[in-house]
Design goal:
Alpha-Beta Plaits; four-stranded antiparallel sheet; 3 helices; 50% helix
């Protein structure tokens, strides 16, 4: 199993539900084809360096995962034919130094999402107690 990072940019014209659907679709392809999802980093709506398909902005998302090489071929094929994806790029981590960076990045993202989850649950608990 190899370690990969795939960044993809989703069209900004989609609703938030459709954007979440596109991200879920990518995660499903990874999990259904034998990959293991390590972390996801949704970077949000950002300005593009140059217009792509007349779009000035795009929703950036990065997925970190381990998978066999055949999965990467299938994932990139699916992304290539998806009209809602403006661009994508995959990186394979191979050397020991790169794998250490991969593991640290995954750990950092998971810690960040855990902190955000606890904040969200604390806010929900305080809203329920006020009502």
């Amino acid at each position: 199993m190899n370690c990969y990072e795939t960044l993809f940019i989703i069209k900004p014209t989609l609703t938030s539900e459709e954007i979440e659907g596109q991200i879920t679709k990518v995660k499903d392809i990874i999990s259904q084809r034998g990959g293991e999802l390590k972390a996801t980093n949704d970077m949000g709506m950002r300005r593009l360096a140059y217009p792509i398909e007349k779009q000035e902005r795009g929703y950036y998302s990065v997925v970190y995962y381990t998978a066999p090489s055949q999965l990467l071929e299938e994932l990139e094929r699916q992304l290539r034919y998806n009209e809602d994806i403006l661009r994508f790029m995959s990186v394979k981590y191979t050397s020991k130094k790169e794998l250490n960076v991969f593991n640290k990045t995954v750990e950092t993202i998971n810690k960040k999402s855990a902190v955000e989850d606890t904040k969200a649950s604390d806010e929900t608990a305080s809203e329920t107690s006020e009502a």
